[in-house]
Design brief:
The protein is α/β, with parallel strands linked by helices. Helix content is about 40%, strand content about 20%. The protein has one domain: 3-Layer(aba) Sandwich (Protocatechuate 4,5-dioxygenase, Chain B). It is globular and about 60 Å long. Belongs to the MEMO1 family.
């Protein structure tokens, strides 16, 4: 088969078409009619950051980003997500020709995939890892719905350019961002950057806490210790996430990389975000327009509000940038 199957259907989201559409419509109904004083979708918002957890947890947050996404001129959609299934240095591209969803298939733009692969020295994703990876798949049903809202027929839907991002350095991210710059500038391209934010808890090896609200005094709590006598843990998680979101909104790739290194925030898509920010920073130098190229955060949520050190949570963020 040359089609990547929807492996998470029936577990991470509904497998039945009607049930899945009902869930997505419910999430979209929670988004207001305007965001940042603009009707939706936001004109020119061709790049978003959105989460990739099970829809029960992150679907409502993701709906905000997808409601902002402008696909009106899109011929292809790049999807960049982190690798959860194998150790990967740099980036890798799919070898499949189609990506399945319960609604229908997306066609992979094989020509662009090969061009980007060659220009950035990317690898091929092993097919077993491609099918096991959720960071790209979780976006496809939401993207399909957004395409239905935009185009008259599935024949008119944009193709997809799936890219898995592994470990990258600051320099690597700038180099890959430079490769993507020409695609960022082309209004026929849209971009989905897949990431959850803080993964807090012993199982994520991250239990940062500050009693005084100072990120410079972060310490790590021991599991099964007593509940902190100071502010609840979830407030520290929000502080760490807000610092990361501020760095994303700054438009500075270096500021984002430095923030992650300083706080250790377990943003799983930090490298896809870093690549996007590196590309947008180059784009900003050309357009010289502060209303373009800067991410704006529109929604923040967590899977739970952590109070006890042996608890855990994952944070979700939706953002967009006008290009």
């Amino acid at each position: 088969m040359d089609t990547r199957l929807a492996k998470k259907a029936g577990s991470w989201y509904q497998a039945a078409e009607d049930d899945l559409m009902r869930d997505i419509n419910k999430f979209l109904a929670e988004v207001p009619e305007t965001v940042d004083d603009s009707p939706l979708p936001i004109p020119g918002a061709r790049i978003i950051i959105a989460p990739h957890a099970g829809y029960e947890y992150s679907g409502e947050t993701a709906a905000w980003a997808y409601s902002c996404l402008d696909l009106s001129k899109a011929k292809r959609v790049f999807i960049l997500g982190p690798s959860h299934t194998y150790g990967l240095l740099g980036c890798a591209v799919t070898t499949f020709s189609k990506y399945a969803t319960p609604f229908g298939d997306f066609t992979v733009d094989r020509d662009i995939v090969e061009r980007v692969k060659e220009a950035a020295g990317m690898q091929n994703v092993p097919r077993r890892n491609d099918e096991a990876e959720h960071s790209l798949e979780m976006h496809l049903p939401l993207l399909y719905k957004r395409c239905q809202q935009t185009f008259k027929s599935p024949e008119d839907f944009p193709k997809v350019v799936p890219i898995i991002v592994g470990s990258t350095s600051r320099t690597n991210e700038k180099d890959i961002g430079r490769v993507l710059l020409s695609y960022i500038k082309d209004e026929e391209n849209a971009f989905i950057i897949s990431s959850d934010f803080c993964h807090w808890g012993e199982r994520f090896d991250y239990t940062a806490y500050t009693a005084d609200g100072d990120l410079g005094s972060l310490k790590h709590l021991q599991p099964y210790s007593s509940k902190p006598s100071g502010p609840p843990i979830y407030e520290s998680i929000q502080l760490v996430d807000e610092a990361a979101m501020d760095a994303v909104k700054s438009g500075s790739h270096d500021a984002f990389v430095d923030n992650i290194r300083r706080t250790g925030n377990t943003v799983c898509g930090r490298h896809p975000i870093g690549i996007a920010m590196a590309a947008l920073e180059l784009y900003a130098e050309e357009v010289n327009d502060e209303n373009k190229s800067r991410f704006k955060v529109v929604k923040y949520d967590r899977s739970s509000e952590v109070v006890w050190p042996d608890d855990s949570s994952v944070s979700y963020v939706s953002a967009y940038a006008v290009l």
